[in-house]
Amino acid sequence: MIAKAVGIAQGVRPRVLDATAGLGKDAFVLASLGCEMSLIERQPLIGALLEDGLARAAEDFDVAPIVARMKLLKGNSIDVMRNWEGEPPQVIYLDPMFPHREKTALVKKEMRLFRPLVGDDPDAPALLEAALALASHRVVVKRPRKAPCIDGPKPSHALDGKSSRYDIYPKKALKP
Ligand SMILES: C[S@@+](CC[C@H](N)C(=O)[O-])C[C@H]1O[C@@H](n2cnc3c(N)ncnc32)[C@H](O)[C@@H]1O
Q1: Structural domain of residue 140, as residue ranges?
Q2: Inside any domain, residue 128
Q3: What is the atom index within ligand 1 of the atom nearest the CA of 126?
Q4: Is residue 176 part of a domain?
Q5: 175 within some domain
Q6: What is the pTM of this model?
Q7: Where residue 118 sits, what CATH number does that domain have?
Q8: Ligand 1 neighbour 129 (Cβ under 6 A)
Q9: Whose Cα sits closest to atom 4 in ligand 1?
Q10: From the CB of 40, is ligand 1 less than 6 Å away?
Q11: Which of 24, 37, 137, 142 is close enough to 90 for a disulfide, judged by CB 3.0 to 4.6 Å?
Q12: Ligand 1 pocket check: which of 23, 26, 42 to mutate, most ligand atoms within 8 Å of Cβ?
């Protein structure tokens, strides 16, 4: 579902900026499918865990080729995107925190780490606005399935998964 959301197709592997990297799980999935990824995480402790994870993965024979496609940038994505220099990312992927309750043990465990450090990312509308201004081809926002869209421009359509939804904000077709 995430592959379809960012526009991966035969002969299409977009350059993606994951502007809410967290621990890099979604970015890893996209890198493993062949996308060149830039990642930004603003929470210093989570950013440090991600940096350490990427460094250790780079030493691992099996995953080194995948993490070679993952470049970690520092700072707040809103500022980084507003001051972007050079070629813009084709796709910008956003997965900001959303105040919701999930029952699975996995989510609970992750949320025990994230929630107290990160809060609820109330500036998500500014993040979306900056992403829409920068991405050349599309912006994708991951939301809990029943959650409202981020305030601001509305997506053209959405892909529904079991627990998540991907809101798609297209700008230009991705071509092989
Ligand atoms: C739900 S988590 C993302 C999980 C990630 N998709 C994964 O697969 O691991 C949201 C993360 O986005 C980060 N974040 C939110 N707004 C941000 C911003 N403006 N700049 C950088 N990071 C941001 C938060 O600190 C948090 O770690």
Answers
A1: 2-170
A2: yes
A3: 19
A4: no
A5: no
A6: 0.95
A7: 3.40.50.150
A8: no
A9: 22
A10: yes
A11: 137
A12: 42
